[in-house]
Each structure stands twice: as C-alpha cells, then as structure tokens.
Amino acid sequence: MTFGPKAEPPTELNNGPSFVSLRTMIDILLEILQHPFVLGLIVGLIMACVLWLRYVRKQREQQKSYEGQVIDLRASISRLEAHIKTQMELTAGGNAAQKEEIEELKKRCENLQLMNHNLTTKASRAELRQLHLYETALSVMHVRAPGFSVAWSEAVKDAEVQLEQESKGFLKWIRKPFQSGHSKSSAPQLTDSDQ
Predict the structure, then answer these.
(1) Which terminal CB of the chain, N or C, has fewer other CB atoms within 10 Å?
(2) Does the keyword Coiled coil apply (predicted)?
(3) Shortest CA distance to 104 belongs to which of 115, 114, 92, 112?
(4) Whole-model pTM?
(5) Residues near 152 by Cβ (< 8 Å), separated by ≥ 6?
(6) What is the reported pLDDT for 195?
(7) Alpha-carbon span 62 to 64, nearest angstrom
(8) Total domains, the chain
C-alpha cells in the first residue's frame, strides 16, 4: 500500500474503505507501540501518573492533618486568650485592692503621726496638775528661803540648755547608753533620816 498523490481511492470491492483504513491504523499503532522508545515512554508515563496520584493523595492527607492542627491550634489559642484575660482581670483586681490597702495604710500612718505629735506636745491632766503643784511649791520656797531663788534659777537655766541640746540630738545619743547603768547607782537615794 502506498500513500501519496498516486494512491488510488479505496473502493468498496476491497472490503470497504473503513475496514482497510482501520486495519492499517491498527497495524501502524501496533508497530509504533512495539518500538522500544514508545514502550519506555508509556511505562514512564504510567509510573509518573502513579507517582503523581500518590503525591496528590499524600498532599490531601497532609492538608487534612494541617487543617486539623490549625483547628486544634486555634482552639488552644482561644483557651489561652481566655486564660490570659481571666488572669489579667484577677491581677488588676488584686492591684486595685492593694492600692486601696496602701492608701488606707498611708492615711492610718498619717493619723498615727498626728496623734503621736499631739500626744507629745499636749500635756495631760495629771501633768498639768503636777506642774501647778510644783509652781505653788516654788512660790512658797521663794518666800521661806531667800537664797533658794538664785540656785533655782541657775538650775532651770542649766536644764533648759541641756534640754535644747538633747532636742537637737547632740547629747541624746551620748546620754542614752550611760543612762540605764548609772541611773540607779548614781541617783541619790533618800532614806528616812534625810527626810
């Protein structure tokens, strides 16, 4: 059979045109398929299709697992956000309570300082009575003993100077350590014969 311009058109006497052309096409196809290059190409394509299908299936499985992980991570994130929000609310409440307590303690401290100042500066009733008693005794002593007033005024001046130095802190720190040891032994003790 020859192909080209001189080929005769098939006639129906030669078993019909479709049969011959179909037969020749099958022969050509079988001849092409038997060629080693084509066989290798077909085997390679089949292997490529199998590998591609496995890859697609694996990608779908990974995609599903990634979607599951994303859902789990989102749930974890929402739980953590709720936990952090609760923790921040508790911390803020605790901080507010501590601030209120600190303010209350500051007010109490100021009140105590004010009370302490008032108590140190304000004389009590017993102290005022004692001072009045001493003043009365002094006026009586001035009348009875004329030399007493000079000695008394010098003793008062010395006591004022000493008190001023103690209030400035000059003698106070020196006097305290020695005061407890010498107060009992150095103080003159009155006996019945002295009175």
Answers:
(1) C
(2) yes
(3) 112
(4) 0.34
(5) 138, 141
(6) 40
(7) 5
(8) 1
Which sign does the torsion angle of CA 79, 80, 83, 88 carry? negative
pLDDT in tens, 22-48: 888 888 888 888 888 988 999 999 999
Structure letter (DSSP) for residue 34:
T
Cα–Cα distance between 178 and 161 in angstroms, integer? 20
Q: Is residue 123 part of a domain?
A: no
Which tokens is 182 given?
């010498």
- Decide if 115 is inside a domain: no
112: in domain: no
Residue 52: both structure tokens together: 């591609």
Query: pLDDT tens, 66-121?
Result: 999 999 999 999 999 999 999 999 888 888 889 999 999 999 999 999 888 887 77
Amino acid at 35: H
Cβ within 8 Å of residue 175, ≥6 positions away: 166
Token pair 């058109």 is at which residue? 9
Please give the residue range of the domain that contains residue 72. Answer: 12-79
The pLDDT of residue 185: 46
Measure the CA–CA gap between 18 and 10, rounded to whole angstroms.
Answer: 9
* Strands annotated E in the chain: none
Residue in the structure block whose two tokens are 């052309």: 21
Residue 158 φ/ψ region, left for φ over 0, alpha for ψ in the -120 to 50 degree band, beta for the rest: alpha
